[in-house]
Request: fold
Amino acid sequence: MKPQLIVIDDEADLGSLVCDVAEQSGFDVSQYTSARHFMQQYDNCADVIVLDLMMPDIDGIEVIRFLSQQQCTAQIILMSGFDSSVLHSAQKLAGERGLSFAGSLTKPFRLPQLMELLDSLEIKTRSHSPRTIIDPPSANELKLAIENDELTVFFQPKVSLNGDQKAAAEALVRWQHPDHGLLTPDYFIDTAEQNDLIDSLTWVVLRQVMSQCSQWHDQGLGVQVAVNMSAHTLKELNLPEQIGNMLQQYALDPSHLVLEVTETALMEELIKSLDILTRLRMRGIRLSIDDFGTGYSSLIQLYRAPFSEIKIDRSFVSEMDNDREAATIVQTIIDLGKNLNMKTVAEGVETEACKEKLKTLGCEQAQGYLFARPMPAGEFFKWYQKYLGL
Reply:
């Protein structure tokens, strides 16, 4: 069965041209010159939708909203004669609305561009079997999981881009569920946040991280590990003392611990957060501002808080190869980090081209699927031994 492609463009001739090229590329095609007509007949069977942004009855942005409401699974290709900034905003909107954005074409485009884009698409076979949906856990279920040591920490390597061969990682919590197997934080973090369990969860992670770091140090591998901190935990004024005592218990140098803090967490109780973060830095613990650039007041947070590291959000890094504006934002953040004497870390690195671009720009550290996925502690130790040539 051929994949299905739909073209929505009020310019009939151009739409027909796209259909002709798509047929040559192996698609069954349908064409609509009216967005309203398309919406009336929509059945969610398309694999690819080629959508013009500027149409007279209903514009492309309204169609994007409609497709999102219909939980459309098709890959979306946008066409526009507007300037690149409008097309760029529409791309981001499609992504934010949960649609699968596959590419864009600026009118007038050349046929080889369209052919290359269509040939690059990965069409997945549609499954008619129902997906297993796991309901979020209750507070009591999560509390028992914490008490029964069902939470475990995975480690994703952070790789140096400037020749520094020190081992580093981000700690990422997982739930080894007795019935559902290994579950990621998306499944249970909201329950923890909403039911005052996030502190207990955070301390489980910190204790596992420090215990594991101590073992690695005894094995000759000094690892700097980053741990995500919630807004709730940053309200506890005795946090610096508690973490300091735990570091002493495991005989770890404070510089081996990095606490990642989002701008949202910092803003919830700003004065108290600044108090806590400053005292943590005074103890030698490193602080990273996570997801930098996605908040509303990034620069003022860098000015106020004693961060030692900027973590560049994956939403910018993953688009560097194809999006000039994303690449410019990444370069600006790296330059800012250099000027403020702060380490820059890029997350979401998935291609060799992206890695080389970051290296050229002077980014110091990177993590992402290009290097390794999060893994258990034993696998991490073997991975880094191989990476460092030990």
About this structure: Residues 4-120 form a domain with the Rossmann fold fold (CATH 3.40.50.2300). The chain has 16 helices and 14 strands. The mean pLDDT is 88.
